[in-house]
Design a protein that fits this description.
about 260 residues, alpha/beta, Rossmann fold, six-stranded mixed sheet, two-stranded antiparallel ribbon
């Protein structure tokens, strides 16, 4: 099986730069990079075969290019509300990361190898970047029913846009919940772009619909994840034209704000 191992990070970062130049990005645009990793039961073979580790190593040069700190904000998720933020991946700790921080992490025993829900991890992404806040209920009926209200904003806490990669091999069970969060983020013009990487041969109906409906969501089908991350054009797939246009728009908007 074709796969990828990160041997020379500096060389891979240059390759990322070349891909972006072909998309019309000739200067570095700062961005935060995140990775949401499906740890449902059907993903086990991809973990044991080292393929998820390879995927992480392929995404890391993207983070090294965009992020001042050269890190990947990382989450794992499965079914129900089971998800967790985990240690950030960097050029210093990426070797053996998946075995150490995910499959060998006893703190994740209640999360690993469950079902598949996207909503909780999307929510955690938005909260982490400062794009979603829960407001206490207001008024008589608000106090009576005690329901907090989600408020989504445009700018991340750092003022730098976020690119989040989503690795998943199955359909989610929480369609309405996940869709509602993506819709609210799009309406608020939140500074986050999702690259949904669908692994295997599922229809990925939800992910495809989201990519069609929202300008800050993209879908990539990786039927064979090992071949996907090991291919010569992997960065072209991870940095598609729509994402590059979105980044340029975010950067131009930032420049306008400082005029």
């Amino acid at each position: 099986m074709t796969t990828f191992r990160l041997e020379k990070p500096e060389e891979e970062v240059r390759r990322v730069g070349f891909v972006l130049q072909k998309q019309g990005i000739h200067e570095r645009i700062p961005a935060q990079v995140g990775l949401n990793i499906d740890v449902s039961g059907s993903m086990q073979n991809l973990f044991s075969g080292g393929i998820v580790q390879s995927a992480l190593e392929r995404v890391l040069p993207v983070a090294l290019y965009f992020d001042d700190d050269g890190r990947i904000d990382a989450w794992v998720f499965s079914g129900d509300d089971n998800m967790s933020a985990i240690t950030q991946a960097t050029a210093d700790n990426y070797k053996g990361y998946v075995a150490r921080e995910i499959t060998g992490n006893r703190d994740l025993d209640g999360i690993l190898w469950g079902g598949t829900n996207y909503g909780p991890v999307i929510r955690s992404n938005l909260v982490t970047y400062g794009l979603l806040e829960e407001q206490e209920p207001e008024g008589f009926f608000g106090m009576l029913f005690g329901r907090k209200r989600d408020v989504l904003g445009e700018e991340t806490r750092s003022g730098v846009p976020a690119i989040n990669y989503f690795l998943t091999d199955g359909e989610n069970s929480d369609i309405e919940r996940a869709w509602d969060l993506l819709e609210k983020a799009e309406r608020a013009e939140s500074q986050i772009y999702y690259i949904m990487v669908g692994i295997g041969s599922s229809d990925f109906t939800f992910l495809r619909r989201a990519a069609e409906a929202f300008p800050n969501v993209g879908f990539v089908n990786a039927e064979n994840l090992g071949n996907f991350v090991g291919s010569d054009d992997a960065y072209e797939k991870l940095l598609p034209a729509e994402l590059c246009s979105w980044l340029k728009h975010e950067h131009e908007g930032e420049d306008d704000d400082h005029d």
